[in-house]
Amino acid sequence: MEMLEIKKLSKCFDDLEVLRDVNITVKKGEVVVIIGPSGSGKSTLLRCVNLLEQPTGGEILYMGEDITKLGKRVTGYRKHVGMVFQRFNLFPLKTALENVMYAPIKLNKIPSKEAREKAEELLQKVGLESKANTYPLALSGGQQQRVAIARALAMDPEMLLFDEPTSALDPELVGDVLEVMKKLAKEGMTMIVVTHEMGFAKDVADRVIFMDGGYVIEEGAPADIFSQPKNERTKSFLARVL
Ligand code: ADP
Ligand code: MG
């Protein structure tokens, strides 16, 4: 079964049509990378999947259920879907460990000892066990982003959405974050990743989707999209970024 089925999704902000007739399916364990120029609707798409934005039309089925009709049960749905943003959005007055512990305690009522042990494990997983007691401002951007990933993982998500997770980082810090994401992909995490890191897309994606002007223009295996794009718009975008 498909984990996520986006059908005829549209989103307007007043007169501005940002997503038009978007159809995307994601299977459990798949890594789907979304590429496309700035303003093409990539962030809005992820925000619709997480219901940070309410779609204007169409359906988003998660495990067969239309999430746009969940009403109050949206909180339960959001727990299954983690999101990692371009700007890490950590709580500045909490340490790395406290950032990771927070949601499980607050939302899942996990006892704090248990949450702490799990948070320590997750910080180890992202290579930051030595920074547990450090505050975000004393961490590099790459370290902050890895804490943000650990924080998303703390809720045991079934799917992770990444919105340009390395775009705000100095180039030398990008690699460590991509390594963590690769590890998650290998472990079978279902991921939708908006990124300009074409190397990551080639190595890790099961499928690459090219968006432009609110439409999905082309999708396929990375080898096909990168070496023989069919659409002229895909070709000219790739010619600019590769
Ligand atoms: P991308 O992530 O591909 O750069 P976005 O989804 O951020 O694209 O934006 C797509 C278009 O939607 C842009 O023209 C942007 O200005 C517009 N947009 C995004 N969010 C809003 C909003 N909350 N209100 C009005 N316009 C928005
Ligand atoms: Mg964006």
UniProtKB/TrEMBL annotation:
Localisation per UniProt entry: Cell membrane
Domain ABC transporter as annotated: residue spans: 4-238
Topology in the lipid bilayer: Peripheral membrane protein
Gene3D superfamilies given in the database record: P-loop containing nucleotide triphosphate hydrolases
Record InterPro entries: AAA+_ATPase, ABC_ATPase_HisP-typ, ABC_transporter-like_ATP-bd, ABC_transporter-like_CS, MetN_ABC_transporter-like, P-loop_NTPase
An annotated GO cellular component: plasma membrane
GO molecular function list: ABC-type amino acid transporter activity; ATP binding; ATP hydrolysis activity
Signal peptide extent: none
Coiled coil: none
SMART domains: AAA
Keywords, sorted A to Z: Amino-acid transport, ATP-binding, Cell membrane, Membrane, Nucleotide-binding, Transport
Record family assignment: Belongs to the ABC transporter superfamily.
Protein name, entry field: Peptide ABC transporter ATP-binding protein
